[in-house]
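Protocol step 4 of 6: structure prediction from sequence.
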Amino acid sequence: MNTTNPLTENPQVISYLTLRRALGILGISFPVVLAVGSLLFCNCTEIQSSISSYYHTDMRDIFVGTLCTLALFLFAYKGYDRRDAIAGNLGCLFALGVAFFPTSVSESSTPCIPEAFSNNMVSSIHFISAGLLFIVLSYFSIVLFTKGSKNPTGRKLKRNRLYWICGYTMLGCIVLIAVYFMLLEKRYPVLQDLDPVFWLESIALWAFGLSWLTKGKALLNDLNPSA
């Protein structure tokens, strides 16, 4: 009987597991690092209205650096077939779009943002890139991660349910953000005090991170590693 564990004998498998876990950690930690870092080290007194707004704070380098790292990891991720590689390359492109085409801020609403920035074209590229990035990440969870054998283990079925939950959570957050900007922002200005966009973006990133940590076998791994 062969007792060799392929996860320990195949360096390529180890590298992909590490890459997936790194992406998961990036997704979960990204909004936390920005919010806590700005509060502790940048003399900010409150959370910004969106994660993208942190580009205009002293956390800009962290914002851009994390997105560039995410882009690099997605570019390096080739998965099992051509669909994985294409999705990774598209995710890389959209992450760079989010990083280097900042959102507009109409006015300095907090001590964190020293001056306004307004460029409709740049801001449009930012929002389109962010939306497409989350769609690609949702595609990973809903379609690519749920692929597997014809006779999946019980743990695989649980992982698939988690992937679907994470993927549809990301899509739901995108829809809710769009609804907020199109229908609610001007009609109910009181909602701005709750920072709904920041929290919806954070939930989407946490769902993304949870999905990739699970794919990296940090969660719900099969009891038999060779299964």
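Step 5 (inspection) to follow. Residues 11-41 form the longest helix (31 residues).
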